[in-house]
Amino acid sequence: MKKITISFLFVFALVVGAFAQAPAQTAVTLFKNVKVFNGMDDELIDADVLVEGNLINEVGKNLSEDGATVIDGGGGTLMPGLIDAHVHLVWNQGMGEYLNSRPSYITILTLKEAENTLMRGFTSIRDTGGDPFGVRTAIENGIYPGPRIQGSGMVLGMTGGHVDFRPLIDQPRALGGPELSAVAKQRGGYIVDGVPEILAGSRDVLRGGANFLKLTASGAVTGVYDPLDISEFSYDELKAAADEAKRWNTYLAVHVYNDASIKTALEAGAMVVEHGNLITEETMKLLAEKDAWLSTQTGVFIQPLPPGSSEDQQNKQKETREGLDNMFKLAQKYNVKIALGNDLVGPPKVKATQNEELVNRTKWFSNAEILKQATHNNGKLFELAGPRNPYQDGPLGVIQEGAYADILVIDGNPLEDIKIMAEPKKKFKVIMKDGKIYKNEL
Question: Which pTM was predicted?
């Protein structure tokens, strides 16, 4: 009896161990009956797309795979998931409300906006100011749905600059004022002055998980104290940030509008110009020579500013809006690398206009060029962060073998009618991110 019991337990242990060690079955999905926009070419191609796990395994005709879940695209367009290169995922309120909200409430709003962003077809975002990294961890651990997030963390700004939203009665820290501003307490940005503080701020932001650095190098439309024409930070301060980013094997991006500040930032080593609306031809040529990126937006300059905006802010928006035409024409002339972003801040009804960014650009670009900006181009911008880019298993923004399986299936052909991109709820029939389907209406 004892021997039988021991034998039974031994066999039972072997069986349990075999099941425990059996690898999880890799999900396989096969898309058929679709026209493919691969993110790089101007025309659609007839092809099937095979996904294994979180990567695209094969793109070709008449593919088959035993055990695959087959999705019939109904003749629609299969394309890479959209990428937004300039997002503020954490900022989902007006400035006053944001600065006075509990961090836990801000996190809840951020989680909800992350889900909304994904369901608008944006499978990846580049966050350019704030602290979305806890939310990113929740998304990556499967706790909550949302896009991939590459981020700058807290923005670095100077006293009186774009990050400085302190009331006038608050003095700078160096002159007896509060140790941290309200924006810093909400993890929005540091006010730093001089090279030593620039270095300390840069190192702290990168220590906190930032994938690149962002610094404000000129005045801003929504700024309180900073006119558009001023230069924020000296050449030495800008160079200190750019050099520190390089030591971390990543790069410096700069919020900047006026031409003089763009030129100084490029000469100091910045590799991404965020906005750049008031750039001149000479500086655009320099940007091309430096092989830097121009991260552009339109909607934030076209749509009305939030209620309560000052006359000064409205005038600054008008000036930047009028600069769009010249900026885009110069960018095309010198064949610079153009990223597509939104820079939308505020409540959900504002963020809900995210997809309209693609439609706004038809004044300057073809439908194919716009779609490339929102996929392949922005995917290449992610790669600029080098080893700090959290997504190393394959390229983003393309439909090709070995790429991340971030996929949309759309009812219609956006190369012919870009307006359908502004109707994600109606026209986006499948949304897949990292090989997992979040929406399937086919």
Answer: 0.92
Concatenating the DSSP letter of every residue in 103-148 gives: HHHHHHHHHHHHHHHHHTTEEEEEE-SS--HHHHHHHHTTSS---E
pLDDT of residue 95: 73
Residues in CB range of 228: below 8 A, 6 or more apart = 218, 219, 220, 221, 257, 258, 278, 316, 319, 320
Type and span of the H or E element at 84: strand 82-87
CA nearest neighbour of 353 among 81, 83, 120: 120
Residues 326, 378: Cα–Cα separation, whole Å: 22
How many alpha carbons lie under 13 Å from residue 284 in its C-beta half-sphere? 21
Q: 290-305 burial, b if ≥16 CB within 10 A, otherwise e?
A: eebbbbbbbbbbeeeb
Query: CA-CA distance, 237 to 231, in Å (whole number)?
Result: 12
Q: Using CA atoms in the order 133, 139, 144, 146, what is the torsion angle rounded to 10 degrees?
A: 90
Residue 23 carries which DSSP code?
P
Specify the pLDDT at position 23.
Answer: 57
Query: How many other CB atoms are there within 10 angstroms of residue 12's CB atom?
Result: 10
Q: 230 by DSSP, 3-state: which?
A: coil
Residues 6+ apart with CB under 8 A from 353: 299, 303, 344
The span from the CA of 424 to the CA of 120, in Å, is 5
Residue that has been written with the tokens 């206009």 in this structure: 353
For residue 1, the model assigns a pLDDT of 46
Residue ranges in the chain modelled with pLDDT below 50: 1-6, 9-16, 18-19
Q: Is 224 helix (H, G, I), strand (E, B) or coil?
A: coil
Q: How far apart are CA 6 and CA 133, in angstroms?
A: 51
Q: What is the pLDDT of residue 274?
A: 98
Q: Which two tokens stand for residue 387?
A: 């080893």
CB-CB neighbours of 278 under 10 Å: 22
Closest CA to 91 of 176, 155, 168: 155
Q: Please report the pLDDT score of residue 186 as a whole number.
A: 63
